[in-house]
Amino acid sequence: MSIHRPSAFAKPRVFAPVVTPFTAGLAVDAPRFVAFCRWLVGQGAGLALFGTNSEANSLSLAERHALLDQVIEAGIDPAQMLPGTGACALPDAIALTRHATEAGCAGALMLPPFFYKGVSDDGLFAYYSDVIQAVGSDRLRVLLYHIPQFTGVPITHTLIERLIEAYPQTVVGVKDSSGDWANTSAMLEKFPGFAVFPASEGLLGKALPLGAAGCISATANIQPHAIASLLNAATLEERVVWEGKVATVRLAVQAQPMIPALKSIVAHFANDPEWNRVRPPLTPMNLAQSGALLQQLQALDFSMPSMASLAAVAA
């Protein structure tokens, strides 16, 4: 099966599931969020707003609507954005997906409905089909989100094939967060032209030669420039150097609770402890944990350049 990849994904790209800052009262901190989005885009990353590491499922529908609007109103091009729009409730998924599409986003990254377990491919096909039909826009581009260790609801290859056949111009890609390289490589082999995004930059060395569309990675929040440099490497030697750099940072961070770790790193380099907040039931890293992680990163010569824009918001 061959699929025509949309121009938005013609060149491999990195997208960051943007971590979400909160105020002391645990409201969404829009100014900090917008400033961080600007920094990420300036470092060469696209924005997978409302992904897993954005604490998306701890945000209300109204918060996600408002935050997307605020990012766009701040002058950031929606063509750089792949908002997460999947939800357990079909009306919520329709509303989020319609909003992203009408805003001009490059696509919508859609979790399956994740409360009921053991659902059939027929049920999942109906869910995605109902969203697509309800949005009813030729501009809609859906990327499926496979993260069965969180959802308990896998996106099977059979389901992908059915959706591509039914909606070849609409269902254009998948983020594979399973951590199963055999699954990622099989997707790349079975669906040439489909925009397959591994969830770790550590897999790019194997995935890019097979046609991967880049990556949508948690640690793109902290090393967007390095991952973009890997994707844009002019020579094999240059690519190998960047592969080593990004993989070692990824390994250090993924050994920790990912969301609190990312926020701790951003807080350190932005010189802004407000970034450490997470919404319950998550808890922030303690000083010993964050100190040990930062020591590891320092030993790797890690830095986050040009964070002055975030520091200015903190001031």
What does this structure look like?
The chain has 315 residues and is α/β, with parallel strands linked by helices. The chain has a domain at 8-222: Aldolase class I (TIM Barrel, Alpha-Beta Barrel). It has 13 helices and seven strands. The protein has helices at 30-42, 61-73, 90-102, 121-135, 148-151, 157-166, 181-190, 204-207, 224-231, 236-254, 258-269, 287-299, 308-314; strands at 13-16, 46-47, 108-110, 142-146, 171-176, 195-198, 214-216. The strands form two sheets. The chain has a four-stranded parallel sheet. The chain has a three-stranded parallel sheet with strand order 2-1-7, covered by helices on one side. Helix 1 runs antiparallel to helix 13 (308-314), helix 2 (61-73) runs parallel beside helix 3 (90-102) and helix 4 (121-135) runs parallel beside helix 6. The longest helix is centred in the C-terminal third of the chain and has 19 residues, at 236-254. Belongs to the DapA family. The active site is at 145 (proton donor/acceptor), 175 (schiff-base intermediate with substrate). InterPro entries: Aldolase_TIM, DapA-like. Keywords: Lyase. GO terms for molecular function: 4-hydroxy-tetrahydrodipicolinate synthase activity.
